[in-house]
UniProtKB/TrEMBL annotation:
Top-level lineage group: Eukaryota
Pfam family, one: OHCU_decarbox
SUPFAM superfamilies named in the record: UraD-Like
Coiled-coil intervals: none
Residues of the Oxo-4-hydroxy-4-carboxy-5-ureidoimidazoline decarboxylase domain: 14-172
Organism: Hesseltinella vesiculosa
Keywords on record: Purine metabolism
GO BP term, example: purine nucleobase metabolic process
Protein name: Oxo-4-hydroxy-4-carboxy-5-ureidoimidazoline decarboxylase domain-containing protein
């Protein structure tokens, strides 16, 4: 995944495959969403594209299975670095240089791995959160709180809202365009 995106004018003209690859830079690989965004071309701006994505994800445009496919496209917080995209590595605060993780990082990741498992068993989909530069250690109480809330519909909505926050942040980083 690249940190840069073509101009919106160029994106509107691209082949389906190139369009979807660029959209996946913002949203990870989620075919139900990417295909609907492809059908929505042309866009005046990337912000308009994300606005449509938000409408699709938070509205009634997706089946329950499609919503699961979209939210489960995101990597788990604390995921093994080898399984993360370049953007996710940065967002989750990993040092991208080669080397071993500290004992503290290993413990945090082990705790997050267990909490991710608990969350997914409880709700049936991945925990998605807009990290916004917070250390992974600060996510531990948040995921515990969200498991305890015991509200599946609210959790799906929260995850989708955070996905849009992530996409807007990625857009800002990739293009400087920000209508947050």
């Amino acid at each position: 995944m690249s940190d840069s995106l073509p101009s919106i004018e160029q994106l509107n003209k691209e082949t389906d495959a190139v369009f979807i690859e660029a959209v996946n830079t913002l949203f990870e690989t989620a075919p139900p969403l990417a295909n609907r965004l492809l059908a929505g071309r042309p866009y005046k701006s990337y912000s308009d594209l994300i606005d449509l994505a938000e409408k699709i994800c938070l509205g009634n445009d997706l089946s329950e299975q499609d919503k699961l496919d979209v939210i489960n496209a995101h990597p788990r917080i604390g995921e093994n670095k080898a399984n993360l995209s370049a953007m996710s590595l940065k967002e989750q605060g990993y040092n991208t240089r080669q080397g071993t993780e500290s004992a503290e990082d290993q413990q945090i990741n082990a705790t997050l791995a267990q909490l991710n498992k608990d969350y997914e068993q409880h709700y049936g989909f991945k925990f998605v959160v807009f990290v916004a530069g917070r250390p992974r250690s600060q996510i531990i109480p948040l995921i515990r709180e969200r498991i305890a809330s015991d509200n599946k519909a609210q959790e799906m909505n929260t995850g989708m809202v955070d996905m849009m926050r992530i996409a807007r942040d990625r857009l800002k980083k990739a293009t400087g365009e920000s209508h947050l």
